[in-house]
Design goal:
It is elongated, with a radius of gyration of 23 Å. It has two domains: 12-239, no CATH class; 270-358, no CATH class. It has 361 residues and is mostly helical. It has helices spanning 12-49, 52-61, 70-81, 83-101, 106-132, 143-173, 175-188, 192-209, 218-239, 242-277, 289-295, 298-310, 314-336, 341-358. The chain contains 14 helices and no strands. The protein starts with 11 loop residues before the first helix and ends with a helix.
Length: 361
């Protein structure tokens, strides 16, 4: 869909965050290349990147109704892959040194670093990607948006972290060990980091999209949930027990099911809200009774897109549905918090203009 003429210009702060995070991620990968050698690094990078296309597609599919700006998604991913990784390593090492100086043994310090420090530090740093977007809070319209941004940060973090883990396994026991680790991290539990951090995403999105008195308490609660899930998996892994790993895996998969359910319910609610706001635009001639029936249920929207593709109007129907969705989101934002009437009118008219250009049936 053609962006409305009043779209916000790319934020300089977000562009700077993207550049800095990207450079940091490249530096980390360069250090891994030098330390691990081209063969080990090449295999490790290949294993880390292999599942990414499927994982990214899965995350982005959650937000098909109202896709987030590509810049914001890129910033979240790069932040996780760059700044969050480096800061997490540094802070975890510092924490372990403090416990070592306090008299804890080497094994205890190692376990504390894995089970306690890593979840506490890493989730705070990955979740901070959402704080970068708070100034553009209009982009977080629901819990699904928080899940998507948090998942992008988690995927970026996991991608770079996995290169390091695979490289260590390769250096210790060769390619076979790296592939075995890939089976666990890349195939069995590829969504660990996105799921953990999504708890924070839900908390931040809830705080921004609700009007209840205690809504901001959802942010620390989401963080605690993320730390719990992360610590649960790491703790189970340190035991070497398949039973503990299986139990932790079931809990994390339960969290995944809950997140998917949240997005599914929210998607249906958004589509239903179109039936509340869009009838007011019947006088424009851009929305008929047939259009309302098509827009206000997910099966009808899918059927309309299928018909439009057969009639050579696939792009037009997609643009029309997207503009109608954005128009509904505009009303929801105005309902949630005061909005300048002139700004509202400009955005409304921009979406209506897009619908007018697209509607050729």
């Amino acid at each position: 869909m053609t962006a409305p003429p009043l779209s916000q210009r790319p934020s300089k702060a977000l562009l700077l965050a993207l550049v800095v995070s990207g450079v940091v991620a490249l530096i980390v990968l360069a250090v891994m290349l030098v330390s691990g050698g081209p063969v080990g690094f090449g295999l490790s990078a290949l294993l880390a990147v292999a599942p990414l296309p499927v994982l990214l597609a899965a995350v982005l599919s959650l937000d098909r109704l109202e896709p987030e700006p590509k810049l914001h998604l890129a910033v979240a991913f790069a932040w996780g892959a760059g700044v969050a990784v480096v800061a997490a390593i540094a802070l975890t090492l510092v924490g372990q040194q403090l416990f070592a100086r306090a008299g804890f043994g080497t094994a205890a310090v190692q376990d504390i670093g894995v089970v306690v420090l890593a979840p506490v530090v890493e989730e705070a740093l990955k979740g901070s990607a959402l704080l970068l977007l708070l100034r553009r809070r209009a982009e977080i319209d629901g819990l699904t948006d928080g899940i998507v941004y948090a998942s992008m940060a988690g995927l970026g973090f996991a991608a770079v972290e996995n290169v390091g883990y695979y490289l260590l396994a390769f250096g210790a026991d060769g390619a076979g060990a790296a592939v075995q680790l890939f089976v666990v991290r890349g195939l069995i539990d590829p969504l660990g980091h996105p799921i953990y951090t999504s708890m924070i995403g839900v908390g931040v999105a809830y705080a921004l999209t609700r009007r209840t008195a205690g809504r901001y308490a959802a942010i620390p609660l989401g963080y605690l949930a993320a730390v719990f899930l992360h610590g649960l998996w790491n703790g189970a892994a340190t035991t070497g027990s398949l039973q503990w790993l299986g139990a932790a895996y079931l809990v994390i998969m339960g969290a995944l099911v809950l997140l998917v359910a949240v997005t599914a319910v929210e998607r249906r609610q958004l589509v239903a809200r179109m039936g509340f706001y869009l009838p007011a635009y019947r006088p424009t001639g851009l929305i008929t009774e047939a259009d309302l029936r098509m827009l206000t249920t997910l099966p009808a929207r899918k059927t309309a897109r299928k018909w439009a593709r057969g009639a050579g109007l696939g792009r037009a129907m997609s643009d029309y549905q997207q503009a109608a969705t954005e128009l509904t989101m505009l009303h929801l934002r105005a309902e949630r918090q005061p909005m300048d009437p002139l700004r509202f009118a400009m955005e409304r008219d921009a979406y209506l203009a897009t619908m007018a250009r697209a509607r050729r049936w």
